[in-house]
Amino acid sequence: MAEAAVQQSIQSPFRLDDKVVLITGASSGLGVAFARACAGAGADIVVAARRADRLAETVELVESLGRRALAVPADVTGPDDCRKLVDAAVAQFGRIDVLVNNAGIEDHAPATRLPIDEFQRVLDVNVTACFALAQAAAPAMPSGSSIVNISSVMSRTTMDFPSTGYSTSKAALNGLTRTLARQWSGRKQIRVNALLPGFFPSEMTDNVALDLLENRVVMGRLGRPEELSAALVFLASDASSYITGTELVVDGGLLLS
Questions:
Q1: What is the pLDDT of residue 204?
Q2: Which pTM value belongs to this model?
Q3: Which letter does DSSP use for residue 241 in this model?
Q4: Which positions are catalytic?
Q5: For the domain with range 13-250, which CATH number is right: 3.40.50.720, 1.10.260.40, 3.40.50.300, 3.40.50.1980?
Q6: Where on the phi/psi map is residue 65: left (φ > 0), alpha (ψ -120 to 50), or beta?
Q7: Phi, psi angles (nearest 5°) of residue 219
Q8: Which residues does residue 101 pair with via DSSP β-bridges, in sequence order?
Q9: Phi, psi angles (nearest 5°) of residue 174
Q10: Higher-confidence residue: 92 or 211?
Q11: Domain residue ranges of the chain, discontinuous segments joined by +
Q12: CB 169 within 8 A of CB 123
């Protein structure tokens, strides 16, 4: 019995029992994996994206795990949609314990041919929307809440890919993470951290030469979604209650190459 109690005490901080987790970009890929993992850890989930039909599938997944779910179709680049999303979450669940800023887009054109409006669009989705939603959600987040911004190892390396807007936006998101952590972790008691994935199978990596990446990754393979989700649950949970303003890299050693 004593051993079981110790084991439970170790596992408990990693649980998200009855917490409310809001995840953007949750209609496909890693957003769905995050929703599955957080629900599996005991959380109720609010999912947001532009594709309402795909959100319905994520809701079914969460509910199949015995948790409550709410889908809110939204374009997070619109401040009105951000407020609508937060209002819907609060109306349904009363609060937001964890915000996962996962929605993101990328660009592929070389810098010499990248239109300024496309560059700006990437910044709008990957940085400005994260700030707008964090700003809207903060008043609904109680003491001890967590914001996790999904950044990328591309904020630290270019990998010789023509991703000017994407790399720039993710580096800016790291900066946003640090300044929000500095401002909110004390007064508001809201922790803010960034998760920096390497390369995982998703819609974003469909057009990437995966064999090239595998040769650059020290561990010799791409990541599995559940490996990244485990890190997300850690940053969302009380297990990371003394961690804020950090950048957690999950890349199989890619940055070592």
A1: 57
A2: 0.93
A3: T
A4: 166
A5: 3.40.50.720
A6: alpha
A7: -80, -5
A8: 149
A9: -60, -40
A10: 92
A11: 13-250
A12: yes
